[in-house]
């Protein structure tokens, strides 16, 4: 007897959360940073810049934890640090303004342990709004008269940044400069943040793009409006994990993916388009 399977799919609105860590360091082994920068009076600011699109962030991003590498401190009790989150633009560091702060972590006191990673939590999570291209994650030490050296890894994918708040030490910058501007190419400060991105399938124009067939077995065809320029496609599973990322093509082979429900996000100059697909 021939078997007939009936699949009924009821979908009204789907949203899911995706945990993402912003990190430029390679590995987690904290080593001494050669020619490290620090003002012994305090007032130090160490930072990293993160381009959100590099980490697949398309919606609101809620930051709730940071991790900071510590090289050493000799003060007892140790200095207090806090992590600040700022919005920045393509003209950073010239355009940097403390008025663009989004929020801060809870402060912690650094102990005397050397070459460790310390977690900092956010009692009030910091929301980076959808549409923001980049952020600055800053580790700030108040003017407390205590010596602190931030730690880092041997290798990294991007610049480290440093400044002090007011002129208090010689040979230290009062505006943000990269490790290369400071002639310190081996400074790879360990500064990371983690949070949750919530994505929804409700924010797209139904008429601007069509996926066929859907449900799909192997290859899905994409028909779009002529004036719609799609640069990249990312496919997420129902758990919010990115399972595939590719430059735009009018046909996408997903035969390697397990059967199930997926979210397909297409990046355009006008914003992100989101579609749901079913792989059988």
End-to-end separation in angstroms reads 22 Å
How many helices? The count is: 0
Q: Extract low-pLDDT stretches.
A: 1-14
Query: What share of residues are in beta strands?
Result: over 45%
Q: Could you give a short description of this structure?
A:
This protein is mostly beta strands and 280 residues long.
Give an overview in words.
There is one protein chain. With 280 residues, the protein is mostly beta strands. It has two domains: 17-197, Jelly Rolls; 199-279, Sandwich (Immunoglobulin-like), CATH 2.60.40. The chain has no helices and 21 strands. The protein is elongated and about 65 Å long.
Question: How is the topology of this model organized?
Answer:
Elements: E1 15-22, E2 25-26, E3 44-51, E4 61-73, E5 80-88, E6 101-104, E7 108-109, E8 116-128, E9 134-141, E10 148-150, E11 155-156, E12 161-164, E13 177-178, E14 191-200, E15 209-212, E16 219-224, E17 230-237, E18 242-247, E19 251-253, E20 260-268, E21 271-279
Antiparallel strand pairs: 1-14, 2-11, 3-9, 3-12, 4-8, 4-10, 4-14, 5-6, 5-7, 5-9, 12-13, 15-16, 16-19, 17-18, 17-20, 20-21
Task: List the main descriptive attributes of the protein structure presented here.
Immunoglobulin-like, elongated, 280 residues, 2 domains, disordered N terminus, five-stranded antiparallel sheet, mainly beta, Jelly Rolls, seven-stranded antiparallel sheet, single chain
């Amino acid at each position: 007897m021939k078997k007939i399977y009936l699949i009924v799919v009821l979908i009204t609105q789907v949203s899911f959360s995706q945990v993402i860590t912003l990190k430029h360091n390679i590995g987690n082994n904290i080593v001494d940073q050669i020619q490290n920068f620090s003002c012994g009076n305090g007032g130090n600011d160490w930072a990293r810049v993160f381009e959100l699109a590099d980490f697949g962030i398309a919606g609101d991003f809620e930051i709730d934890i940071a991790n900071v590498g510590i090289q050493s401190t000799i003060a007892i009790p140790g200095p207090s640090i806090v992590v600040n989150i700022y919005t920045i633009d393509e003209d950073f560091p010239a355009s940097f303004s403390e008025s663009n702060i989004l929020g801060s972590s809870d402060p912690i006191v650094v102990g005397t342990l050397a070459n460790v990673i310390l977690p900092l939590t956010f009692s009030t999570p910091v929301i980076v709004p959808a549409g923001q291209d980049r952020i600055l994650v800053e580790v700030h030490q108040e003017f407390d008269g205590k010596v602190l050296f931030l730690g880092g890894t041997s290798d990294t994918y991007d610049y480290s940044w440093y400044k002090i708040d007011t002129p208090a030490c010689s040979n230290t910058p009062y505006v943000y400069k990269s490790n290369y501007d400071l002639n310190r190419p081996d400074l790879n400060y360990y500064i990371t943040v983690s949070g949750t991105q919530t994505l929804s399938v409700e924010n797209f124009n139904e008429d601007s793009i069509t996926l066929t067939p859907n449900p799909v077995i192997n290859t899905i065809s994409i028909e779009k409006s002529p004036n719609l320029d799609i640069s990249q496609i990312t496919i997420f599973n129902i758990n919010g994990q990115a399972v595939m990322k590719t430059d735009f093509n009018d046909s996408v082979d997903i035969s390697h993916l397990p059967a199930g429900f997926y979210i397909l996000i297409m990046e355009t100059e006008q914003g992100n388009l989101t579609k749901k697909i079913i792989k059988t």
